């Protein structure tokens, strides 16, 4: 063997120094990556705690007596899970009327928002008409307008029409959903145009194409818009407070204020019980639609 061959001979594996971290420790960047992941998990847990702990406290406080809420140090668990606060809340104000009013305004308002968003987005994407891009630009601009700016004009119009203390006064001024239109439009841009073209060749009208082809394949986006609309309608407080002054037409958030005024701000057990009655239906809707929320909100996210 030549001298050069001897110089190039391989080194025994046992004589090679171990790589920092070794097989068990992974790459040199592995500890830093794990620290970053741990920090991310801690931040996520802190964010979840900030959102969940008030709900847990509200739920537990609804079973407590008045003296238990003011104990120091804080007593999280009630001494007994008594339903007296719920009975007092139901007896103090007509929660049945509040629930029916909220249910009507939420179902009708959310359904009309979804229908208007679907039809408007379909027209913007699949129809050709003058100033189409300008109209969509106005829809996007509407997202930037705070609701408080249009309250006075809407109230003046509703008052002139005689719609104070009516369902149409509660529902109609908030039907225009720029968010729903924008989300539907972004999703429709990702749909296969060939399917709609084939349907058009078979004689399907725009209405048929919308409800028989577009809507069935847009279920995740519809679920996302439905959830946002339902939560918005159910929790709406300022507008119903302005256009309703009779107890029989109040919705649940406004009725909760009536409960606070009747029972006093210090009786937090009764107030928390009323708040639980308002919150639970929205939480149930969220859990039913949560699987479709992410896919619906991210649908068409990279489409221009």
TrEMBL record:
Domain ABC transmembrane type-1: 99-289
Pfam families: BPD_transp_1
Record bears the keyword Cell membrane: yes
Protein's membrane topology: Multi-pass membrane protein
Main localization, broad class: membrane
Keyword set, alphabetical order: Cell membrane, Membrane, Transmembrane, Transmembrane helix, Transport
Disordered: region residues: 1-30
Subcellular location: Cell membrane
Transmembrane segments: 41-60, 103-127, 134-155, 167-184, 210-231, 268-289
Record keyword Nuclease present: no
Family (UniProt): Belongs to the binding-protein-dependent transport system permease family.
Protein name: Sn-glycerol 3-phosphate transport system permease protein
Organism, scientific name: Arthrobacter stackebrandtii
Source taxonomy: Bacteria, Bacillati, Actinomycetota, Actinomycetes, Micrococcales
């Amino acid at each position: 063997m030549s001298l050069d061959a001897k110089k190039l001979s391989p080194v025994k594996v046992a004589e090679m120094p171990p790589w920092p971290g070794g097989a068990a420790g992974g790459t040199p960047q592995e500890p830093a990556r794990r620290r970053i992941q741990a920090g991310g998990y801690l931040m996520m847990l802190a964010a979840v705690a900030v959102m969940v702990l008030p709900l847990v406290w509200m739920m537990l406080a609804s079973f407590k007596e008045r003296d238990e809420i003011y104990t120091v140090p804080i007593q999280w668990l009630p001494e007994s899970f008594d339903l007296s606060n719920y009975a007092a809340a139901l007896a103090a104000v007509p929660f049945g009327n509040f629930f029916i009013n909220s249910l009507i305004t939420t179902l009708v308002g959310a359904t009309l928002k979804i229908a208007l968003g679907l039809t408007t987005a379909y027209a913007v994407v699949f129809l050709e008409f003058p100033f189409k891009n300008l109209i969509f630009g106005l829809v996007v601009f509407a997202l930037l307008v705070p609701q408080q700016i249009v309250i006075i004009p809407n109230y003046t119009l509703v008052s002139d029409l005689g719609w104070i203390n009516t369902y149409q006064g509660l529902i109609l001024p908030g039907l225009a959903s720029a968010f729903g239109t924008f989300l539907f439009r972004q999703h429709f841009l990702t749909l296969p145009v060939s399917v709609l073209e084939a349907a058009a060749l078979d004689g399907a009208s725009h209405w048929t194409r919308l409800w028989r082809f577009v809507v069935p394949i847009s279920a995740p986006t519809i679920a996302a818009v439905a959830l946002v609309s339902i939560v918005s309608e159910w929790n709406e407080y300022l507008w119903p407070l302005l256009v309703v002054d009779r107890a029989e037409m109040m919705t649940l958030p406004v009725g909760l204020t009536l409960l606070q005024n009747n029972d006093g701000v210090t009786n937090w057990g009764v107030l928390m019980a009323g708040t639980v009655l308002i919150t639970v239906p929205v939480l149930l809707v969220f859990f039913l639609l949560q699987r479709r929320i992410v896919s619906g909100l991210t649908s068409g996210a990279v489409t221009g």
